[in-house]
Design goal:
This is CdaR family transcriptional regulator. This protein has 497 residues and is an alpha/beta fold. It is built from 16 helices and 15 strands. Helices cover 48% and strands 15% of the residues.
Length: 497
């Protein structure tokens, strides 16, 4: 219900009110009507209250009348209603001009209209509005209580109740947090994030969202740990009851916090399950029912590897899209396990947001998942090496794309076996020297400093490496073979890439 205004009182002919000045302020709201005859009524009438007087409180001097209008305006009153019973002094032109300038309504009330009639009219209107607000509040909380029992989401039900399509957007990651039937246009989400800009630490209480010159949505900050805003989708500015909106924000904020806690708990238990599968401490029989709880049972799986600092982002992108997955960190890499059917959707969500991704070959055997982790790690290394966004592990792999730990060992020994045996027999560091030399882009100075040896010693070691392996440290083809073999060696030893 809209608020009662001074203009509404004038429009009620039965009240006998007419405007004599300040008609520009007839849209001022009226929450109460109060009678006062003291000479300082501005101290006794509050904001949005209508002052009713027989005129005894009005001074006769023009300057004092002007000062009275200014003080009443400063107090924020809705207007002044003066009884037409000849008790008021003449209203000067200066007083009326000041009221017009400040848009402070001055009404003349018919002698036949008791002030109590105006007071009751305002009181009934205010009471009716409060009853309407309480009823709406009751419905909002009933919606929140019953949302968990219904097929529709809390946002869908609140959207229906409030008459506006509601969304919750994480403005840090650009995702919609609580599921509902329809999604916001991507350009609206982008526009909101651009509007918020660097204000993540202090989100604006209310933010208009425009695309071009068109208003497409209005956003309101939520009190949540995630940087979330309640977005009301629509092409016009929102004229929603502030009382209802405030409680809707509170309900939705509570739901976002609950969903966030549930997600964090599921992520932690899922990480433990994934880690136990990878390290072999959990057998397939024990893992199967827990995978079923995660929506991953009896499927083909893939593992996707990425740099570990992006774990939180990966969890948010996948979780907000309700894509079944398990995630964990092993060494310096983050890993996620999802179904082969959902692989494309997962890559669409992550690529472009996470710099490099490595994807394993599909497997339907739990015991092969540790190999899938190694494959994903290998593919991630390939993505880093050539700067690509996504590298998929090929099932038709050449020698230096091992599918299993045993293949990695074989690939490493095929090139470095004699060198490894020489190091073991002579307690030398030729493999370490080669690894350091290639890692430092074949810089003699940097390698010698890293290994704390003289350049002549480095030259001797490189010559021995070439003699033992039959490969040159100057040939591009041989350098590539050395490098891939060294990576295979790290994988076979469980090292990080």
């Amino acid at each position: 219900m809209s608020e009662l205004t001074v203009g509404d009182l004038v429009a009620m002919r039965q009240l006998g009110c007419r405007t004599i000045a300040g008609s520009g302020g007839l849209d001022r709201p009226v929450v109460w009507a109060h009678s006062c005859e003291l000479d300082d009524p501005w101290n006794w009438v509050a904001t949005d209250e209508l002052l009713m007087t027989t005129g005894m409180c009005i001074p006769s001097d023009e300057a004092l009348q002007i000062e009275m209008i200014r003080r009443l305006h400063k107090a924020g009153i809705a207007g002044m209603a003066i009884g037409d019973d000849l008790k008021a002094p003449p209203l000067t032109d200066g007083m009326l001009d000041e009221a017009n300038a400040l848009d402070l309504p001055i009404l003349s009330v018919s002698h036949s209209t008791p002030f109590s009639a105006i007071g009751r009219t305002v009181g009934v209107a205010t009471q009716s509005e409060q009853i309407s607000r309480i009823a709406r509040l009751s419905r909002l909380y009933e919606v929140a209580r019953s949302a968990t029992l219904a097929d529709s989401s809390l946002l869908d039900r609140l959207s229906t109740e409030l008459g506006h399509p509601l969304h919750v957007v994480d403005v840090e990651f650009g995702t919609e947090v609580l599921g509902r039937r329809g999604r916001m246009p991507a350009e609206t989400v982008r526009a909101l994030r651009q509007r918020v800009g660097g204000k993540l630490d202090r989100l604006p209480a209310r933010q208009a969202v425009t695309v071009g010159d068109e208003l497409v949505a209005t956003a309101f900050a939520l009190s949540t740990h995630r940087k979330c805003m309640l977005v009301v989708d629509g092409p016009s500015d929102i004229d929603m009851d502030a009382f209802g909106l405030l409680h809707a924000q509170s309900l939705i904020g509570i739901e976002v916090e609950r969903a966030t806690r549930d997600r964090e708990r599921d992520d932690a238990s899922g990480a433990l399950l994934f880690e136990q599968i990878v390290d072999g401490s959990l057998g397939s029989d024990a893992a199967q029912p827990r995978l079923e709880q995660s929506g991953l049972a009896d499927r083909e799986w893939v593992v996707i590897a990425f740099d570990s600092p992006h774990l939180r982002a990966a969890r948010i992108y996948l979780g907000d899209s309700a894509l079944p997955s398990l995630t964990c960190i092993v060494g310096e890499e983050g890993y996620l396990m999802t179904t082969a059917d959902d692989m494309s959707a997962a890559l669409d969500l992550l690529s472009g947001r996470i710099p490099h991704l490595g994807v394993s070959a599909p497997t339907s055997t739990i015991q092969r998942l540790p190999d899938s982790v190694r494959q994903a790690r290998w593919a991630l290394q390939a993505a880093r090496a050539d700067g690509s966004a996504v590298a998929e592990y090929s099932t038709a792999s050449p020698l230096f794309l091992p599918r299993t730990l045993s293949e990695a060992t074989f690939a490493a020994r095929a090139v470095l076996g004699d060198l490894m045996d020489h190091d073991t027999a002579n307690q030398s560091q030729l493999v370490e020297t080669l690894d350091t030399f290639l890692t430092l882009d074949r810089s003699w100075t940097a390698t010698a400093e890293k290994l704390m040896i003289h350049r002549q010693t480095l030259a001797y070691r490189l010559k021995r490496i070439e003699t033992i392996t039959g490969r040159s440290t100057k040939s591009s083809a041989d350098i590539s073979t050395f490098w891939m073999a060294l990576i295979a060696l790290r994988i076979s030893r469980g090292g990080n890439q």
